[in-house]
Design goal:
By secondary structure, this protein is mainly beta. It has no helices and 10 strands. Strand 1 (8-12) and strand 2 form a beta hairpin.
């Protein structure tokens, strides 16, 4: 990351000479960054409902539109789990890149599961 606003980053390839960096202007401040193995860099922002994906072999970028902005980004096996701000529980689960349109699943309310089935206590 280049600046305090987290809006630019560079990737330095140490395997290929000359050692040059690849500056990437992000536009929005990146809140979350994660690596998917050694093949992809993932970036999400709480400002926009999008997931940025950078293929580290080709340095080709793509983005995936989401329904909600992302608070946390996790890689679980081959799945990408994006947590969204919600007291009830709200996540989007995506397959590993390349991600086709409509491939994600949104789970909402899982923190409320069975809440109304419990007996009330004083």
């Amino acid at each position: 990351m280049h600046d305090e606003q987290r809006t630019a980053l560079s990737i330095l390839d140490l395997e290929r000479e000359p050692f040059t960096d690849t500056p990437i202007k992000l536009g929005d401040a990146v809140g979350q960054i994660a690596f998917l193995g050694q093949t992809h860099l993932l970036a999400a922002s709480a400002a926009r409902p999008r997931l940025g994906i950078l293929d580290l072999d080709s340095l080709q970028g793509s983005d995936v539109p989401l329904e909600f902005p992302t608070d946390a980004l996790l890689v679980v096996g081959d799945q990408l789990v994006l947590n969204h701000a919600s007291d009830q529980g709200l996540v989007t689960v995506l397959p590993r890149p390349p991600v086709a349109a409509g491939a994600g699943r949104v789970w909402w309310g899982f923190l409320l599961d069975g809440l109304l089935d419990r007996a009330l206590r004083d």
